[in-house]
Amino acid sequence: MDEHDQEPEKVLDVPIEHGARTMESTVQSVGMKDKFLYFDVRGRGEAIRQLMVLGGHSFEDVRISMEEWPGFKDQMPLGQVPVLEVNGTKIGQSVAILRYLGHQLRRAGSTPLECARLDMIGEVVQEFTNTEGAGKLPAVLLGFIKANKEEFYKTKIVPDVDKYAPIIERFLLENGNNGLFSGDRETWVDIFAAETFSKLTDYASHDALDAYPRIQALITRIHNIPAIKEHIAKRKPTPA
Ligand SMILES: N[C@@H](CCC(=O)N[C@@H](CS)C(=O)NCC(=O)O)C(=O)O
Questions:
Q1: Which principal EC class is assigned to this enzyme (predicted)?
Q2: Which terminus of the chain has a lower count of CB atoms within 10 Å, N or C?
């Protein structure tokens, strides 16, 4: 038996050492607030805002108008927003931002395996936001896509909901009956899914989730967390 035949070292699923885990991040402790750049809509930005609110993480909420956007676009790492700027480093891609903040604010899984399962679910939610139906709802609401909203809902959005919502329901059921995807503490994925699916009932059709009680319960749970409840109550209505 040579060295190649040796048993591979077992990889244990041990608790993760998180980074800055207090309400005040390391960056804020040296006096610089994180800057969050997005348009003045919920879109791909609101779950990130809610996660920071939940974690007590104060941030500069930069809302860019369409007129201002050309002046910002070239400054963004991918020419798009959302972007989180941390101590001069700009992070793009909404899921990367959510995952980073999830770890910083202790709103991620507590072992690598739990994190991987949450990442999987987060990627499914993100896939839903990239669909040709549900994913294009903001473009329809903002008038970038000319379509009859009711018709678009029935023919384009409902098939996407029928495909993705049962998967999400199953992931919620796998964690038992506490209404969360993992463990007993809300994570970035709970916030992300609740925000993504609540936009359907808020903007597309109030009965969009009638067949999905677990998603509805998740939304209710997240929206009743005092910090998020207050944030939503104060949030100005936006068209998407
Ligand atoms: N995959 C990216 C997509 C980002 C994206 O599509 N951003 C849009 C707004 S939701 C944008 O910046 N549009 C302006 C542009 O592309 O010029 C993410 O999830 O962050």
A1: transferase
A2: N
